[in-house]
Amino acid sequence: MDWRSAVLATGGSVCSFKLVNALVGRLQAPQGACSKAWKWRNIATSLVHSSVSGSWAVISCFSLAVSSRLYVGFAVLSLLVEINTVFLHSRQLLLLSGRRNRPAGSATTTTPLPPQPTMAYRLTSLLNLATFLVFRVCTLGWMTRWLARHTEHLPRFVLALGTVGLGGITAMNAVLLYRLLRADVLTDTRTSGKDH
Question: Terminus-to-terminus CA distance in the chain, angstroms?
Protein backbone atom coordinates (compact mmCIF):
# COMPACT_ATOMS: atom_id res chain seq x y z
CA MET A 1 0.00 0.00 0.00
CA ASP A 2 1.48 3.31 -1.02
CA TRP A 3 1.22 6.50 1.04
CA ARG A 4 -1.54 7.97 -1.13
CA SER A 5 -3.77 4.98 -0.49
CA ALA A 6 -3.03 5.18 3.22
CA VAL A 7 -3.88 8.90 3.32
CA LEU A 8 -7.05 8.28 1.29
CA ALA A 9 -8.16 5.43 3.57
CA THR A 10 -7.42 7.43 6.71
CA GLY A 11 -9.14 10.55 5.37
CA GLY A 12 -12.16 8.51 4.28
CA SER A 13 -12.39 6.91 7.69
CA VAL A 14 -12.22 10.24 9.50
CA CYS A 15 -14.85 11.76 7.20
CA SER A 16 -17.11 8.73 7.63
CA PHE A 17 -16.80 8.95 11.40
CA LYS A 18 -17.58 12.69 11.37
CA LEU A 19 -20.58 12.10 9.07
CA VAL A 20 -22.02 9.35 11.29
CA ASN A 21 -21.40 11.46 14.39
CA ALA A 22 -23.16 14.45 12.78
CA LEU A 23 -26.13 12.30 11.70
CA VAL A 24 -26.46 10.77 15.15
CA GLY A 25 -26.14 14.27 16.63
CA ARG A 26 -29.24 15.32 14.67
CA LEU A 27 -31.25 12.62 16.40
CA GLN A 28 -32.78 13.67 19.65
CA ALA A 29 -31.41 11.78 22.62
CA PRO A 30 -34.06 9.79 24.50
CA GLN A 31 -35.62 11.57 27.44
CA GLY A 32 -33.66 9.58 30.02
CA ALA A 33 -30.36 10.39 28.29
CA CYS A 34 -30.82 14.15 27.85
CA SER A 35 -28.47 14.96 30.72
CA LYS A 36 -25.76 12.89 29.02
CA ALA A 37 -26.61 13.57 25.36
CA TRP A 38 -22.91 13.66 24.40
CA LYS A 39 -22.40 10.18 25.88
CA TRP A 40 -25.50 8.84 24.13
CA ARG A 41 -24.28 10.29 20.79
CA ASN A 42 -20.80 8.84 21.32
CA ILE A 43 -22.10 5.34 22.14
CA ALA A 44 -24.59 5.46 19.24
CA THR A 45 -21.76 6.42 16.88
CA SER A 46 -19.65 3.57 18.28
CA LEU A 47 -22.56 1.17 17.71
CA VAL A 48 -22.79 2.19 14.04
CA HIS A 49 -19.02 1.93 13.73
CA SER A 50 -18.96 -1.55 15.31
CA SER A 51 -21.79 -2.77 13.13
CA VAL A 52 -20.32 -1.52 9.87
CA SER A 53 -16.57 -1.79 10.31
CA GLY A 54 -16.63 -4.92 12.44
CA SER A 55 -18.78 -6.82 9.97
CA TRP A 56 -16.78 -5.50 7.03
CA ALA A 57 -13.47 -6.43 8.67
CA VAL A 58 -14.57 -9.98 9.49
CA ILE A 59 -15.94 -10.55 5.98
CA SER A 60 -12.89 -9.05 4.24
CA CYS A 61 -10.37 -11.02 6.34
CA PHE A 62 -12.29 -14.24 5.80
CA SER A 63 -12.47 -13.52 2.05
CA LEU A 64 -8.74 -12.84 1.96
CA ALA A 65 -8.02 -16.12 3.74
CA VAL A 66 -10.19 -18.07 1.31
CA SER A 67 -8.96 -16.37 -1.86
CA SER A 68 -5.24 -16.24 -1.03
CA ARG A 69 -5.12 -19.56 0.84
CA LEU A 70 -2.90 -17.95 3.45
CA TYR A 71 -3.34 -18.83 7.08
CA VAL A 72 -4.87 -15.76 8.68
CA GLY A 73 -7.21 -17.57 11.07
CA PHE A 74 -5.62 -15.88 14.07
CA ALA A 75 -6.48 -12.44 12.66
CA VAL A 76 -9.99 -13.49 11.68
CA LEU A 77 -10.67 -14.90 15.14
CA SER A 78 -9.48 -11.71 16.78
CA LEU A 79 -12.09 -9.81 14.75
CA LEU A 80 -14.93 -11.99 16.08
CA VAL A 81 -14.81 -9.92 19.27
CA GLU A 82 -16.51 -7.15 17.25
CA ILE A 83 -19.73 -9.18 17.15
CA ASN A 84 -20.13 -8.80 20.91
CA THR A 85 -19.35 -5.09 20.73
CA VAL A 86 -22.70 -4.44 19.03
CA PHE A 87 -24.56 -5.85 22.04
CA LEU A 88 -22.33 -4.03 24.53
CA HIS A 89 -23.15 -0.70 22.87
CA SER A 90 -26.86 -1.54 22.57
CA ARG A 91 -26.96 -2.34 26.29
CA GLN A 92 -25.26 0.96 27.12
CA LEU A 93 -27.77 2.88 24.98
CA LEU A 94 -30.67 1.19 26.79
CA LEU A 95 -29.13 2.10 30.15
CA LEU A 96 -28.49 5.71 29.14
CA SER A 97 -32.00 6.18 27.79
CA GLY A 98 -33.55 4.85 31.00
CA ARG A 99 -35.01 1.77 29.34
CA ARG A 100 -33.58 -0.77 31.72
CA ASN A 101 -36.68 -1.16 33.87
CA ARG A 102 -40.37 -0.71 33.24
CA PRO A 103 -42.05 1.68 35.65
CA ALA A 104 -43.16 0.18 38.94
CA GLY A 105 -46.65 -1.26 38.68
CA SER A 106 -49.37 -1.29 41.25
CA ALA A 107 -50.45 -4.47 42.95
CA THR A 108 -53.89 -5.20 44.31
CA THR A 109 -52.47 -4.55 47.77
CA THR A 110 -51.17 -1.21 48.98
CA THR A 111 -47.55 -2.11 48.22
CA PRO A 112 -46.43 -1.14 44.71
CA LEU A 113 -44.68 -3.78 42.63
CA PRO A 114 -40.96 -3.18 42.05
CA PRO A 115 -39.89 -2.17 38.53
CA GLN A 116 -39.28 -5.08 36.15
CA PRO A 117 -36.58 -5.21 33.46
CA THR A 118 -37.93 -4.41 30.00
CA MET A 119 -38.06 -7.18 27.41
CA ALA A 120 -35.61 -5.22 25.21
CA TYR A 121 -33.12 -4.94 28.07
CA ARG A 122 -33.52 -8.59 29.08
CA LEU A 123 -33.00 -9.79 25.49
CA THR A 124 -30.05 -7.46 24.90
CA SER A 125 -28.46 -8.50 28.20
CA LEU A 126 -28.88 -12.20 27.39
CA LEU A 127 -27.45 -11.79 23.87
CA ASN A 128 -24.64 -9.66 25.28
CA LEU A 129 -23.61 -12.32 27.81
CA ALA A 130 -23.98 -15.17 25.29
CA THR A 131 -21.91 -13.43 22.62
CA PHE A 132 -19.41 -12.34 25.27
CA LEU A 133 -18.81 -15.96 26.27
CA VAL A 134 -18.63 -17.25 22.69
CA PHE A 135 -16.84 -14.43 20.90
CA ARG A 136 -14.63 -13.07 23.67
CA VAL A 137 -13.93 -15.78 26.25
CA CYS A 138 -13.74 -18.77 23.89
CA THR A 139 -11.95 -16.85 21.13
CA LEU A 140 -9.33 -15.37 23.45
CA GLY A 141 -8.89 -18.77 25.11
CA TRP A 142 -8.26 -20.39 21.73
CA MET A 143 -5.87 -17.60 20.71
CA THR A 144 -3.90 -17.99 23.96
CA ARG A 145 -3.75 -21.78 23.46
CA TRP A 146 -2.58 -21.33 19.85
CA LEU A 147 0.12 -18.86 20.88
CA ALA A 148 1.35 -21.22 23.63
CA ARG A 149 1.47 -24.20 21.25
CA HIS A 150 3.35 -22.32 18.53
CA THR A 151 5.96 -20.48 20.61
CA GLU A 152 8.87 -22.28 18.95
CA HIS A 153 7.70 -21.27 15.44
CA LEU A 154 7.25 -17.56 16.15
CA PRO A 155 9.89 -14.83 16.21
CA ARG A 156 10.54 -13.56 19.75
CA PHE A 157 9.18 -10.09 18.97
CA VAL A 158 5.90 -11.51 17.63
CA LEU A 159 5.63 -13.86 20.59
CA ALA A 160 6.26 -11.04 23.08
CA LEU A 161 3.82 -8.72 21.33
CA GLY A 162 1.16 -11.44 21.18
CA THR A 163 1.66 -12.42 24.81
CA VAL A 164 1.50 -8.85 26.12
CA GLY A 165 -1.42 -7.96 23.84
CA LEU A 166 -3.47 -11.03 24.70
CA GLY A 167 -2.63 -10.65 28.38
CA GLY A 168 -3.89 -7.08 28.42
CA ILE A 169 -7.04 -7.87 26.42
CA THR A 170 -7.78 -10.91 28.59
CA ALA A 171 -7.42 -8.86 31.78
CA MET A 172 -9.73 -6.13 30.44
CA ASN A 173 -12.28 -8.72 29.36
CA ALA A 174 -12.17 -10.42 32.77
CA VAL A 175 -13.00 -7.11 34.45
CA LEU A 176 -15.73 -6.38 31.89
CA LEU A 177 -17.26 -9.85 32.35
CA TYR A 178 -17.27 -9.41 36.13
CA ARG A 179 -19.01 -6.02 35.81
CA LEU A 180 -21.60 -7.43 33.39
CA LEU A 181 -22.31 -10.44 35.60
CA ARG A 182 -22.55 -8.24 38.67
CA ALA A 183 -24.90 -5.80 36.95
CA ASP A 184 -27.15 -8.18 35.02
CA VAL A 185 -26.99 -11.55 36.79
CA LEU A 186 -25.79 -11.25 40.37
CA THR A 187 -27.90 -8.24 41.37
CA ASP A 188 -31.62 -7.80 41.24
CA THR A 189 -32.24 -5.60 38.20
CA ARG A 190 -35.63 -4.63 39.59
CA THR A 191 -34.13 -2.81 42.55
CA SER A 192 -30.73 -1.82 41.17
CA GLY A 193 -30.78 1.66 39.77
CA LYS A 194 -27.05 1.95 39.14
CA ASP A 195 -25.94 1.85 35.51
CA HIS A 196 -23.09 -0.54 34.76
Answer: 42
